[in-house]
Amino acid sequence: MRSRPACWGGAYQSKDDIFRNLRRFPLDKKTLEKQVIPGLLNRGWLIPHKKGNCLSLNAHHKNEIIGFVKKYYP
């Protein structure tokens, strides 16, 4: 089964799938795990599942996330 680039709400992806989808950005896995993902969790944009091994996008912040992506990654 192919992983989707973005999963909202109840549909979640493992961290490894997220890292694989973010390969095109110039951040290494360690930076993502130590800085980016905790920052997005603190903002409430990501929801942890399965004791933090899987993540999903928070549908309540959909407009903020889409605006952020359009602004910084056209």
Describe this structure in words.
It is a single chain. The chain has helices at residues 15-21, 29-43, 62-72, and strands spanning 13-14, 46-49, 54-57. With 74 residues, it is an alpha+beta fold. It has one domain. Strand 2 and strand 3 (54-57) form a beta hairpin. The protein starts with 12 loop residues before the first strand and ends with a helix. It has a three-stranded antiparallel sheet. The protein is built from three helices and three strands; from the N terminus they run E-H-H-E-E-H. It is globular.
Please give a handful of descriptors for the protein shown.
alpha+beta; 74 residues; three-stranded antiparallel beta sheet; globular; 45% helix
Average pLDDT works out at 76
- Can you give the helix content as a percent range? 40-55%
Low-confidence segments, ≥5 residues, pLDDT <50?
A: none
The radius of gyration over CA amounts to: 12 Å
Q: What is the element string, with H for helices and E for strands?
A: EHHEEH
Structural class label = alpha+beta
**Largest beta sheet: what is the strand line-up?**
1-3-2
Number of domains: 1
Q: Care to count the β-strands?
A: 3
Q: How would a textbook summarize the main sheet?
A: 3 strands, antiparallel
Shape estimate: globular
Measured between the Cα atoms of the first and last residue, the distance is 28 Å
